[in-house]
Amino acid sequence: MTKKPQKIKNELYSSFKILIIAIPIVVLIGLAFSTFYTISIPSGQSMEPDIYAGDIVLLENVNTIDNVNTGDVIKFSLECDIDNTVIHTVKYETDEGLITQGENNDYIDQILDEHNKPVDGVCRPPITDDNIEGKVIYTAESNTLKTILTEMYYILN
């Protein structure tokens, strides 16, 4: 059984209203509690199937790894290239910082020696307060958002 076009439009309109209302509320709550949020759009495949290239990711800005737990998805910069950022999952913590891995990768991001210590002079040491940028709190699939916006355009016109 297929849905009628009007019912589909109503469902899309409801989804769009939720997005339009929810995002400003999250931002206002963040401002009230001095927590700021940013939006990021990943470009790689390392977090599939959880996050795809082009998805819209809402990040809570964090300035310390103390606000992050194992299993959280974080955005961080690479020590040797601060313009290159990565969104990956925290797999575990060490005394030196956080160890991360993309969900679609077979290996961790950091380069560690046989004692689980960072190797000096490498680009990928554990994540510390110096290079963490945020924690993912919401992800919207790019295709879903494009569909909603396209349908909203036709509904409103």
What distinguishing features does this structure have?
alpha+beta, 157 residues, Umud Fragment, subunit A, single chain, 28% strand
| N-to-C span | 28 Å
Low-pLDDT parts are none
Count of individual helical segments: 2
Number of strands: 6
Tally the structural domains: 1
**Percentage beta strand:** 25-35%
- Percent helix, as a range, is 25-40%
Order of helices and strands: HEEEEEEH
Query: What's the name of the CATH homologous superfamily?
Result: Umud Fragment, subunit A
CATH top-level class: Mainly Beta
Over all CA atoms, what is the radius of gyration?
Answer: 19 Å
* Shape estimate: elongated
Can you give a write-up of this model?
- The protein is of the alpha+beta class.
- Helix content is 27%, strand content 28%.
- The protein has a six-stranded antiparallel β-sheet.
- The relative contact order is 0.20.
- The protein has a single domain, classed as Umud Fragment, subunit A (Ribbon).
- The chain has two helices and six strands.
- The model has no long low-confidence stretch (mean pLDDT 77).
What is the topological layout?
Blueprint: H1 5-32, E1 37-40, E2 56-61, E3 73-78, E4 81-94, E5 97-101, E6 132-140, H2 142-156
Antiparallel strand pairs: 1-2, 2-6, 3-4, 3-6, 4-5
Helix pairs in contact: 1-2
Nutshell version of this structure?
The chain has 157 residues and is an alpha+beta fold. It is built from two helices and six strands; from the N terminus they run H-E-E-E-E-E-E-H.
